[in-house]
Amino acid sequence: MIAALRGTVTHWDDTTSIAWIEVQGVTYEVRIPAFAAEWIDSVRDVPDTLIYTYYHVSERTPQPLIIGFPDLAARDFFRKFIEVPDVGPVKAVRALTFPVAEIAGWIEAEDVKAIQQLPGIGQRLSQTIVAQLAGKLMLDALPAATAGRASSGGGDRSGVREDAIEALVALQYTRREAERAVMEAMRANPGLDALEDLIRVVLEQQSPAPR
Q: Does domain 153-205 sit in CATH 1.10.8?
């Protein structure tokens, strides 16, 4: 398996989402998810660029497919995403048009309608995604994956969420307790986007006190 490529992006076609990566005289064709399009364009012709990859080949798709990501967090999310029934690598790479941190937030919040914004993901499949992945995504590992995001709003809310989690950990919550409490508060209060208000709501809804 090809875990990563280190070289120069010599070509990027945003219509096909295909980049060419030259590594020691060999050029690899790599598919780039839409959320990372700005990132891959920004590193074009930059020597020694590191691209984390997922390598896929199967009986149905005998032609090898290499998918590239800006960081390990994005690749790890992708690997979990394709474990969902009816979501294979080809469909997944087309679907990831939003930053993976944002998609992970939708999944943790069980926001089926938001997930349906992803190309090729209908209502039934979005419900399957929630059933398979909710509670299994480590949100604290995902913020770095937003490096390639296009401007889409919601970034500030994502940052507030992470700050709230860290504040609760400082108050002796376990990280998993903090993640769950914050997601529940944000799901119940969609307009909640101020850190102090979010912490207050979390503390009010938590009973008994954390261990």
A: yes
